[in-house]
Each structure stands twice: as structure tokens, then as C-alpha cells.
Amino acid sequence: MADPKACNKKLEGKVAIITGGASGIGEATVHLFVDHGARAIVVADIQDEKGEELAASIRFRCTCTYVHCDVTKEQDVELLVQSTIQLFGRLDIMFCNAGIMSKSLQTILDFDLLLFERLFAINVGGVAAGIKHAGRAMVKANTKGSIICTASIAASVGSDRHTDYVMSKNAVLALMRCASTQLGPHGIRVNCVSPGPVATPLLCEAFGMGAEDVERSFARMYWLKNNGVLKVKHVADAVQFLASEESQFITGHNLVVDGGFHPSAP
């Protein structure tokens, strides 16, 4: 009889990079990848203290290292991929998760182009660099890898504020669709996960609220009832699915994780 624990090791032997991995969705994904048997995980972030603490906390369960990486600097991303392959011999999963939200409301009539450029450098340029260098490494090694990008339901529903953020997540979807077409012939899958509003440190800071208050404010807006509220674990579960062989024939897909979120939900 098969060992039930062994059956759950859906990422056994895999080597993964997770950008923005020190907190929020990235951190939850790190823990889930460990649970599913990943051989090695590289946590990439600019939150050095949090990243080092996270890596140290799971080293007894999985080979894990933290790398300071500013995704707006292509050289940082290129070195991140190169060092991962030098350390572990391969790269199977690239989770391009690093991102920020607008520092102001960014309505179109008060649009700040400097803030827009900074946000796009992280949310779009950082993802492009991640796909580019992970894709190059996977093609060179003939690795049928999986690249996952964090988008958002904001890209589908629009907003009366945070215009630059909504624009950036639309760009991530377009980038994913192009990359999936171009890397598909090499057996490399590229997909997006689009969370609804989830109480990450990023969202809590943007709303100036604690996690419980953020969750409470959105709780009534899910069409899916009696299932609690959206948590980072729900998003990490979707990422794990897209990273594993369970999704081996899925590419160019935007997996929405939002419980049917809608502001008018009863």
C-alpha cells in the first residue's frame, strides 16, 4: 500500500525560486513547497531580516537559502537564477511573485508618472526579468519547468483607484500569455495566479488596517459562502498546483482564487 505521506509529495526533488518570498503569499508558498517535498528553495526578496529568518526556520526540513534580489535590477535576477543552478544543478519552478501596490490613490486625473514608473519596474519589469532568465536556463538545460506569475483580480474588474497597479497586473497577464506561447515548444509552462483581496502585509499597509480588519471588510463580498475568508494559503495552494505535475498540460492560464469576489455580493 502506498504511503499517504509520500503521495502528498507533489514537488519531490524540485528546485524552486520564489521572489517576494519573505512574507505574504511568497512566504506561505515557501512553507507549502516544503510540505510537498521540494528539494531546494531559494527565497528572493529585499526584506533581508525576514528572508534570512524564514530560510533558517525551514533548513531542517528542506535545503533553503535566502538571496537579496531587487527585481528592478536585471543583473540581480540573472545572478539569482545562475547562483541557484550553480548551487543545486537545476531550476524546475520559478514563482515571479514580487510586487507592490500604489503608494497613493493614483486616479487618472491625479496620475503620478514617477510613481507609475517605479511600480511598473517592480510589478512588470521584475516579472519579465524572472521569466526571461528562468526561461533561458530551462531551455538550455532542457528542463520542462513551470513558471508562475502573481497577477490579481484587479486586472479583470478594474478599480476607481490604484490605476497604475491595475495596469501593471493587466500587463502581467499579457506577458504570461506571450511567454507561454514562446516557451511552450520547449515544454515550459507559464501561468498566472490571480488572488482576490487577501490580507498580506502589502495590502494591510495599503489600507492602513490590521489583517483581521482587512478580512472583516471583505468577508461579505464573496459569492462563495460558509468557507471563511480568503487566506494566503488558498493562493499558495493554487501556486503549488501550477508548479506540480498535476497541471502538466496547463499553460497560458490565469487561475483566479477569489471565492467569487464581487463588491455587490450579498
Automatic annotation (TrEMBL):
Gene3D superfamilies: NAD(P)-binding Rossmann-like Domain (3.40.50.720). InterPro entries: NAD(P)-bd_dom_sf, Sc_DH/Rdtase_CS, SDR_fam. Coiled coil: none annotated. SUPFAM superfamilies: NAD(P)-binding Rossmann-fold domains (SSF51735). This is Alcohol dehydrogenase. Belongs to the short-chain dehydrogenases/reductases (SDR) family.
